[in-house]
Amino acid sequence: MLLSHWFRRLHRWATPFIACTFLIVLSTGILLQLKKNLPWVQPPTAKSTGTIPGITFEEMLATVRADPRLQVESWKDVNRVDFRPKDGVVKIDALNRWEMQIDVASGAVLSVAYRRSDLIESIHDGSWFHSSAKLWIFLPSAVILLLLWVTGIVLFIQPWLRKSRGRTAVAPSGGTRP
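Structure (tokenized):
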């Protein structure tokens, strides 16, 4: 009885504490699960003409520099270069979250789109809010959520455990309880 009292108290006070972070993690997690299906989150990988690289890094940089949306002047303005040999595509992500996909065989621009998946991921893990938020807010919220899950399962199972104990208990008169 005492244990279930503390479990209920934990649920009552811990739930409001983690409600906001849980909502953030849940909603961004849903978006991240669907990122390959939602072009708004992450641009789909474009189709290329070939898979054998026919362009140099200098040509890629010149192509990216030519589009003002990416705001790239040098490789220092590039966040990531993602080469997909099977698809024949190189994805170049600028620091401002714009992505250009280039055909590695011809050097043609296949796609230019805003990429939100990295932003959503940083919100998801808490690092977008502050560098310390990840460890001091989101991690404790996750631990508390785990405790709420465990105590919730215990509280859910407890009535059945009580019933099963009551059925097998022996009554003082020597018979079994109904």
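The first helix runs from residue 2 to 33. The chain has a mean pLDDT of 88.
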